[in-house]
Amino acid sequence: MIRLATLLVALAAAAYAQSADTVLINGKILTVDSQSSVREAIAIRGGRIQAVGSTADIRKLAGPSTRSIDLQGRTVIPGLIDSHLHAIRAALSFSTEVNWIGARSLPEALARIHEAARTMKPGSWLIVAGGWNVDQLQERRRPTQAELVAAAPDNPVYVQLGYGWAILTPAGLRALNITSDSDLPAGGKLEKDAAGKLTGGITGGQNAIIALFDRLPKPTFDQQVEGTKKFFRELNRLGLTGVVDPGGNNLLPADYQALFQVWRQGQLTMRVAYALCGNNAGAEFEEFKNLTQLLPMGFGDDMLKFNGLGERITAAMNNNNRPSATDKEKYAQIAKWAAERGMSLTMHWANDASVGQLLDIFESVNKEVPIKTLRWSIAHLNDASEQSLRRMKALGVGWTVQDAMYFGGDQFRQTSGVEAARRAPPVVTGAKLGVAIGAGTDAHRVASYNPFTALQWFLDGKTVAGVAIRGPEETPGRIEALRLYTLGSAWFSFDETQRGSLEISKLADLAVLSKDYMTVPVDQVGGIESLLTMVGGKIVYAAAPYRE
Ligand SMILES: [Zn+2]
Fold it and tell me: How remote is the C-alpha of 115 from its chain's centroid?
């Protein structure tokens, strides 16, 4: 008898041990598995997916302490992954910057400045660091200095547009001691109106605007930590659970500390794969060697890991369509060294006309040290030719694609023509050729970080002004676009076997959506948000009706 009782207790304990931590039932689960299966329910245990199936099957996995979430027919997707988002940088200033992402008119944008002036410490700098475009505003124009002053009369204000223009209020110009062109970084120019009067605007190349931004006061470390937590929650609100971060301008090694602190405290709500950019022009090789001595490729854990070099390797090759033989030689040396250490590498490149020079280097490195398994990638390249894509495929080089044309499509069409714009970017061709493709935004200076803005753009090819410029031949279907934003992006940090789809034993990263991504009219895809986001089975964001 005693033996039987012991056995029964053991059996009960075993059954209990097998029950799910959480079940989500009565939904429409887009698994993004190889058959693009749609299921009703999902069970999560120990941070991973225990099962997917019918509601009846999944209910059987629920025990007395299982949390049961009724989806009431809602759609669930794998957590979205942006394969090229400057998240670390955006996060640093998220608690101290003003955000114009998604603002639809100047009054709405200016109201955000006014609100910040009211809630931030008196006299604080109010900084809009990009992420907006005039075409998103009803008025289709930039703000004037007078409007900014009216919105925040007692604060210095700085508004940046992409990397080509910024405007300061008189208080801002005073604070930075700018009275003439000679006070600006090299290449910068004070803009004048038709009457020759200064407008407060500053024009210049990317480097001038980057250097100007660097003169603004930096958030304190505590503000950076707070910004990092806040920004990642904001991404969670939009269904994102992972990001591949390509470093970027204005981002030095010291700037990673806020991210590392949030990770150490176990408070990361986004999985981050980070890269290392070259920052010291001419001395990048030494920089890389020093900084990676104790940092092997892939080092980290499920939440944070080192993902190699990029997106700026050397200053000389950055945005340079005509690099010299020396520039290429120096770059090749670094690339070969990275290959020997098994490092991944992502490279920012804008134009197909010159990308052959980069591919030549990759090919020559590949002859000495095979790079096929290292998952190198090229970012942007919106006008990629079939020939370049074939060369990338042969090298195992992936392609991260962003919705740059959402803001920039109109200008691209003017400079490159209607036909070129119809195929920018050629994602369908790239996928057909078997190139590994990830989706993303390149936020937050040059684009919004909203993945649903990008997904809608993938599906309709329309600019922010509503003009369709990409043709149907390069327009992916809904599942294909979702696949790019999940499994596709996961590839770039070697994570496609761990996440990116909702399959047994994968990490339970998912989002319950406010609308059905598969059936909502395309022009409403951009308005989708997450109602419930989980990372490793833990709720990181919840809105009504899930905000208990
Ligand atoms: Zn880039």
Answer: 27
How much is the average pLDDT of 310-323? 96
Residue-wise burial string across 485-510, b where 16 or more C-beta atoms lie within 10 A, e elsewhere: bbbbbbbbbbbbebbbbbbeebbbbb
Distance 318 CA to ligand 1 centre (A): 9
Which residues, 6+ apart, have CB-to-CB distance to 104 below 8 Å? 136, 137, 138
CA atoms within 13 A on the CB side of 397: 26
Mean pLDDT of 353-360: 98
Q: What is the pLDDT of residues 229-239, one digit of tens each?
A: 999 999 999 99
Within 8 A by CB and 6+ apart from 211, the residues are 185, 186, 188
Q: Do residues 534 and 237 lie in contact, with contact meaning Cβ atoms separated by under 8 Å? A: no
How close is the Cα of 346 to the center of ligand 1, in Å?
9
Measure 59 CA to ligand 1 centroid, in angstroms: 46
Asked if residues 204 and 184 have their Cβ atoms less than 8 Å apart, the reply is: yes
Instruction: Tell me: pLDDT of 503 over 60.
Output: yes
Quick: pLDDT tens for 469-489: 999 999 999 999 999 999 999
- Give me ligand 1 centre to Cα 403, in Å: 12
pLDDT computed for residue 444 by the predictor: 85
Among 76, 42, 45, smallest CA distance to 59 is for 42
Phi-psi region of 500 (alpha: psi -120 to 50; beta: other; left: phi over 0): left
> How many Å lie between the centroid of ligand 1 and the Cα of residue 125?
27
Cα distance between residue 131 and residue 443, in whole Å: 7
Q: Tokens 């910024």 label which residue?
A: 166
Residue 546 CA, ligand 1 centroid: distance in Å: 37
List Cα–Cα distances, 528 to 30, 104, 234, 363, in angstroms: 15, 17, 14, 42
The tokens for 92 are: 């640093």
In 3D, which of 302, 303, 305 has the Cα closest to residue 275? Answer: 305
- Give the span between the Cα atoms of 322 and 153, in whole angstroms: 46
Helix, coil or strand: residue 342: coil
